[in-house]
Amino acid sequence: MAKVASLAVMCIAAMVMTMFTAHAEAYVTCGTVATDLSPCLDYVRMGGAIPVTCCNGIRSLFSAASSTQDRQTVCSCLKSAAGAINGVNLQLAAALPSRCGVNIPYKISPSIDCSKVQ
């Protein structure tokens, strides 16, 4: 009986550790997205020259988004921002990653289904 109880406790501990490990792998948040992309805000509102700090932020963000969950989080944050920030030119925003040399597998748009981003 003690062996069964000990085995049960070990299984529960392993499940809890697995849950925390899986959660720990995803570390990109909307705060990260906002921080990395804040230098891009004037560009997506008014156009002009793309600031170097904007492209650096895009590269940093997309290299940090190494898991599917991270990429879906980035997508969701961009989707929300594209629909919520006044004056954003969606064509400029959608073209920005490629203009900075970063290829993303989706178009930045308020209508994207981020659950399908891999």
From TrEMBL:
It holds the Pfam family Tryp_alpha_amyl. One of its GO terms (biological process) is lipid transport. Residues 30-114 form the Bifunctional inhibitor/plant lipid transfer protein/seed storage helical domain. PROSITE patterns: PLANT_LTP. The keyword Chloroplast does not apply. InterPro entries: Bifun_inhib/LTP/seed_sf, Bifunc_inhib/LTP/seed_store, Plant_nsLTP. Plant non-specific lipid-transfer proteins transfer phospholipids as well as galactolipids across membranes. May play a role in wax or cutin deposition in the cell walls of expanding epidermal cells and certain secretory tissues. Belongs to the plant LTP family. This is Non-specific lipid-transfer protein. It comes from Anisodus acutangulus.
